[in-house]
Design goal:
binds 1,3-dihydroxyacetonephosphate, 10 strands, two-stranded antiparallel ribbon, alpha/beta
Length: 249
């Protein structure tokens, strides 16, 4: 995995044809060395299509969630071995929509994290505070609580990327200021130094340059603006210009 990492979370968007077209446009549109900085997180129904479409490239593919158990009576869920069967090596976990729309608790996310890592998946663990928590001065306490499960998993830190996504900045067009981003990233680094930290929340081609110029930011996790292959390519190019490329140890 190469830093900076520019990750597209497609959420519940795109059918297989659209997924194929997106991959083709990005592979044809960017220099091949840039592709090693990309991760795509399509919906479950497009995972196999995307894995096939990017098979000849270093583009990484992630599921948007994963259960912690290997199998069982868990309707609607998929497991790490099922993802491995599709050659999917990464999973997003603890995304704010999973936590706040679907009620995944810190405890549940912790179980998923431990299960997924122990079964060999690499994980992007998402953390971030809600607006009322920020306004109550609880941002660092919330982020620290969400990162607590990492303490028992130190031997697997090399398989983890973190994403700081303030809930109030997701899908709202209200991006955090560079000062707010740098402050939380510094706080995370103080405790979890070796783990890369992406920023997510209303990232777009117009603001990604200034966000990526922050030394504390190792990449971006992008929703809405990453659905369009042209915008996504522009954001990859802008990020690499801001950072140069560096290899994650
Ligand atoms: P937006 O970029 O649409 O704000 O979404 C961010 C996000 O949730 C990425 O995981």
């Amino acid at each position: 995995m190469k830093l900076p990492l520019i990750a597209a979370n497609w959420k519940m968007h795109k059918n297989r044809k659209e997924a194929r077209e997106f991959c083709r446009a990005v592979i044809e549109g960017l220099p091949s060395r840039d592709l090693q900085h990309i991760l795509l997180a399509p919906p479950f129904t497009c995972l196999e299509t995307v894995v096939e479409a990017v098979a000849a490239t270093p583009i990484l593919v992630a599921s948007q969630n994963c259960h912690g158990e290997t199998h069982g009576a868990f309707t609607g869920e998929v497991s790490a071995p099922m993802l491995a069967d599709l050659k999917v090596e990464w999973a997003l976990l603890g995304h704010s929509e999973r936590r706040h729309v679907f009620g995944e608790s810190d405890e549940l996310v912790a179980k998923r994290l431990e299960g997924a890592l122990k079964q060999g998946l690499k994980v992007i663990l998402c953390v971030g505070e809600r607006l009322e928590e920020r306004e109550a001065g609880q941002t660092e306490a919330v982020v620290a609580r969400q990162l607590q499960p990492l303490e028992n998993l130190r031997d697997l830190w090399q398989n983890i990327v973190l994403a700081y996504e303030p809930v109030w900045a997701i899908g709202t067009g209200r991006v955090a200021t560079t000062e707010q981003i740098a402050q939380v990233h510094r706080f995370i680094r103080a405790a979890h130094g070796p783990i890369p930290v992406l920023y997510g929340g209303s990232v777009n081609p117009g603001n990604i340059g200034e966000i990526m110029r922050l030394p504390e930011v190792d990449g971006a996790l992008i929703g809405g603006a990453a659905l369009d292959s042209g915008k996504f390519q522009a954001m990859v190019a802008e990020s690499l210009k801001a950072k140069g490329g560096s290899e994650h140890p």
